[in-house]
């Protein structure tokens, strides 16, 4: 039984894009990349079916980044509020601030 070759996602995308460009025939792509015609056709179809996820992923990543940033900012606000209250109380006790 033959050995199975595992291709990287980058390589699959490169082959699929070359197939989509249609600048070379399928047999030329087979020779160029050393992958069967059936595999190239399969990768091309997978690429087309998953292409919308590229744009969804960007929004998800942006949303995740902004939520992470909001959490950090809330933590900073909380820390600064505690520090301000502590310093205001210390100033009152030292007689440096009225009220």
From TrEMBL:
- Coiled-coil stretches: none
What Pfam families does the entry give?
A: HTH_Tnp_1 (PF01527)
A single GO molecular-function term is:
transposase activity
Record-level GO BP terms: DNA transposition
> What name has this protein been given in UniProt?
Transposase
Species of origin reads Macellibacteroides fermentans
State the taxonomy lineage: Bacteria, Pseudomonadati, Bacteroidota, Bacteroidia, Bacteroidales
